[in-house]
Design brief:
This protein is an all-alpha fold. 33% of the residues lie in helices and 3% in strands. It contains three helices and two strands.
Length: 154
Amino acid sequence: MNAKRAPSTCPECGDDLRPTARRCKCGWTVPRADGAASAPNSVADLEYGWCAWRAGGERCRYPGVASSGTHGGGPWYCVGHHRLNDPMMGGHVVDESIRACGSRPDYSLAARVAGLHHAHEAKMAALGYGPKLGTAGTQRQDIDRTVQGMVREA
């Protein structure tokens, strides 16, 4: 089997590539023979992480979390579609997912990390801490306020 090899430079950004490279840091990947994206989370896969169920030309927006595959491959389905055999009920779940998740939910790692950071900042703000807790500037201000309070008391 001869797998496709990467060109010496990336066709997208022009960076040099190793002869055995399968992708570039810009997101370009060597296309597979079947025309699918080389990696499941490549830049070309706009529906990465979505449930694989399709109904009425639309794909379910819920995250794909369950698969019958035993080797880590897909297809991945949401809880509502996993092991579901009723197309009518599957269509209702797709409609519900579109209402609940919007048009293009992002389940990438970067989006999840950003969501966690946002939730943490909101929690700290609710507890009375500033949004930049722990930065050098706020630590210095805290020390200055403490010292000024000690000087006034003396």
